[in-house]
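ligand=FNR
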Amino acid sequence: MTAKRKDDHVRLAVAQHHTSQTAQHAPAQRAGAFDDISFMHHALAGIDRGQVSLRTSFAGWTWPVPLYINAMTGGSPNTGEINRDLAIAARETGLPIATGSMSPFLKDPTCADTFAPVRAQHPDGFVMANINANATPEQARRAIGLLDANALQIHLNTVQEIVMPEGDRSFGHWPAAIEAIATAVEVPVIVKEVGFGLSGRTVAQLAGLGVAAADVAGRGGTDFARIENGRRPRADYAYLEGWGLSTPAALLDAQDKGLPLLASGGVRHPLDVARALALGAHAAGASGPFLATLVNDGLATLIDQLTSWIDQLTALMTLLGAHSPADLAGADLHITGALREFCDQRGILLPQPKENSR
Ligand code: FNR
């Protein structure tokens, strides 16, 4: 049952994303909130490419690049192979990587071999284990232990659970459970959404629970309401598709709420990575787009894609005059459309360019 669900998630997520070998207009490629953010062009802002460093530091960690492969899968033979290949791609390009939810392993230890390849293939990499907020501290330790993980992601997925007939219906204990896990485990905890966004209020709450960082994982890319509706003949909750906060809106709402932020959800290309960094994220992650490349076009193409994202991000920083990812925060931005309306309605101050900013 769980194995079938994991395979369904992969199949339906891939259908939401465009790759070079699929249709041009998969929904996740449509104009999104990231398109409401433009960098002001200053023709003399450029620096030398050799002056750009992609290293990013937050929550006591330094990552070689501000880009990561976010949580997806594990729990069936097929998804075990996907985890292995994602980890090889991460190793070849130096990216941090998260596994999908390790609930299948916590319920059935024989699933270990569908998650363990992530560490085996990326022995020196930054690896994140992933659990839900129902896990006990002891289970959290087991998940971390299997991967010798550098960090633990806890995912919040109320919308997904509600759309699933077999999903959870009790969420009130989550804040206390997150605090208990964060206190008990030996690695820092990152709390993430699964594509519906973390609001500023949520991030402020998490800051009080001992969490080290928040991954806003907003709307705009993989839509889990659509995935769960797609798994059954009658899409009872079709109206929840498109629910939530876009990733840029979440980043703006959650700025200065006491936690370092990571950006994922609807990141389509290196310009979106630069936009997320300009809104204050320390790194940007993607799931569906990388999965679609792997499944449709193979491992070598995924490695090429990640290499080219890193190369193009460096190029964009060169033209924007940003020496480092942190330097992009405070870039001279122009914010328009629905994102600007969102900021106006919520009284969010638009990011101001740093003095002498690009
Ligand atoms: C996910 N995501 C996810 N997140 C999580 O915390 N635990 C999980 O087990 C999963 N499972 C999962 C399966 C598949 C097939 C996909 C595509 C995604 C959510 C993921 O980490 C991310 O938050 C969202 O997919 C939004 O990012 P993208 O896909 O728009 O880049």
